[in-house]
Design a protein that fits this description.
binds zinc ion; Aminopeptidase; Xaa-Arg_dipeptidase; six-stranded mixed beta sheet; 12 strands; Bact_exopeptidase_dim_dom; para-aminobenzoyl-glutamate hydrolase activity; Peptidase M20 domain-containing protein 2; Peptidase_M20_dimer; 454 residues
Length: 454
Amino acid sequence: MTRLTVPSTAYLTRLDAETRLRMATAKTPDSPFAGAPGELAAAVEAQVEALAADLSGVVHTLHQDPETAYQEHRSAAYLVQLLHRHGIEAQLGAYGLPTAISAEIGGTGTGTGAGTETGAAAPTIAILAEYDALPEVGHACGHNVIAATGVGAFIALARTLKEDPAAFEGRVLFLGTPAEEGHSGKEVMARNGAFDGVDAAIMVHPYAMDLAEQVWLGRRLLTVTFSGVAAHASAQPFMGRNALDAASLAYTAIGLLRQQLPPSDRVHAIITEGGQRPSVIPEKAVLKLYARSKYPETLKDLSARLEDIARGAALMTGTGVQIDWDEHPPSLPVRTNSALTGRWVAAQQRRGRAPLPAGVVSETIAASTDFGNVSYRIPGIHPLIGIAPADVALHTRAFAEAAGSEAADAGALDGAAGLALTALDYLSDPELRAAVAQEFKDAGGPVDVPAYFA
Ligand SMILES: [Zn+2]
Ligand SMILES: [Zn+2]
């Protein structure tokens, strides 16, 4: 008998040391834009502060009652009730999803609407909130904190408008976006029009440190089904076509492909079906995988290589193959808008935080988010806010614990302030808006996401 080996922490230790070195010299990104007038920003920040108890209620109520993708009924209802308590109309069941939420407020300020992405008379910005949890480990991604930041920012802006309807121009949307984990709920909402007429979208995700920006990989789901011919594995194996052989060859080929992949590409496959008993040549085998890449075009290229592998394995074994992409919609990588990021950072500095720039944390530590799909439609940001010790990773029980801690309450409050102030800056500063739109255009403009991989 051989013993189970324990993965070495040597590489993680080195990564951590390198991150610390970069942190020591990193310069927090600054913003050349004025944003909102100081007095107005202070008023909005005070409104957020006044919501501390409500936001703590969101953090802990959702944390104690985690609901997974598309099952977030109680979480969504709680957020809608909170909006109602503050006199805000909100729709539960928006854009085709029963647990999605939408609400809207509008100012009567006398801006020009200049610099809007959509060319509308007045700008519109969406503040997003997630609230789905993970199976088994609960709020190990901290979406309960995201919910508090989004709803808190929106209520603070609504209360500001109630006191002075001319405080700012334009519209603010609150979008409760279900099923981020594995299901790309935002893409479903987008296809149902959630971002039509919206100029920019912002949200914040909890993490182990404050990061202004981090790499998020695009991601697709692939199911490959090999069909063979069953036969007696001893008496007449030559009369069979072995579907498990095909899955096994495909799995091996994916392993070999890795050497030729760009460094940030990820492919992780499992074989979920491969026969029932050894005496029967398997007539069906199923391989499921996630493919991830840093850019939309490299994800497309990776997809084509994986299809070739599936067809090659079928050809070698004389089996049939069915290739099914995207059981749930794909996620694109996140395209970060640096002009908006600068305002997020300025807001975080008011809160005593110093978000680190891109590149401080290794981009090999990357996951995926359906916010990527939003960020290729309209300008957006998806920064990270620290609520956990630096060595705690997302999707772990340790992170779930952090998501119910005092640090989570602090993150919810600072995150809400950051989103409210960033939205306020966007609505108040036409030069900022113009720069946001120009940067988005220079990065390639909007992408037709549903058609991209078709
Ligand atoms: Zn997650
Ligand atoms: Zn998450």
